[in-house]
Fold this sequence. Notes:
The chain is an alpha/beta fold. The chain has helices at residues 18-25, 29-34, 51-60, 76-82, 124-132, 187-190, 198-212, 221-234, and strands spanning 40-44, 68-73, 90-94, 109-113, 140-146, 152-159, 162-170, 239-240, 249-253. Strands 3-2-1-4-5-6-7-9-8 form a nine-stranded mixed beta sheet, sandwiched between helices. This is SAM-dependent methyltransferase. InterPro entries: SAM-dependent_MTases_sf.
Amino acid sequence: MKPVGAITRGTTNPNRLRRCDRWLAGPQGWRLRAASAPPIVVDLGYGASPVTAVELRDRLRAVRADVEVVGVEIDPARVAAAAPLAGPGLRFARGGFEIPLPGGARPTLVRAFNVLRQYAEADVAPTWALVCARLAPGGLFVDGTCDEVGRRATWVALEASGPTSLTLSWRLAGLTQPSEIAERLPKALIHRNVQGEPIHAFLSALDGAWARQAGHAAYGVRQRFVATARALSDEGWPTRNPDRWRLGELTIDWAAVAPGGGQ
């Protein structure tokens, strides 16, 4: 089967995806622990350097020692360059969104960062459906975007039934206005940050709550951010994982921010 997708720019940096990785090892770690067989995790479109696949293997093995990470890339030259790093719990394969695993194996987790960002918005929904159809029972697909050094990141979490949540993660030091993360929204949302769209309403509410919690700045940016997230929740925004707020991480139900109010 011909790989599904197109070769992307492939740029990456060490530790760039740490924010998503710690979320996968934290709130989503139960998916690895619940797998009856050694879970397979796919780093889809890892790029010109396989460093993110190596990091993902190391971080998730702290959750479950028998996890196997497969770096999948559509560019055969990148697969060949990564091959020398293959070893216990890590291998590489050529492929795309069809997720080519031997014997029809299904992954427990699929992480694709800064991949769909380089596609057209119209490509997102069918690609999501294709990847989600390949997931193991209880599996998760993460479609995300981050800046060059991983200080700002956002990702959509999808189960077999479709998208379930949006997570935004900031480096709190130096944060001036939360909505600055808008330029790193996933492809499904980045063109939707306009008046009348739910994601615009959410980011506006986030900035408003941040401004109202300015008094907490005397106690540090972390305290201000936690107060901001709590205020959003009190206003009725369906936030999740309040224990993660102190990390500069905010997760909200997908239905609250989906294009047009639902997808």
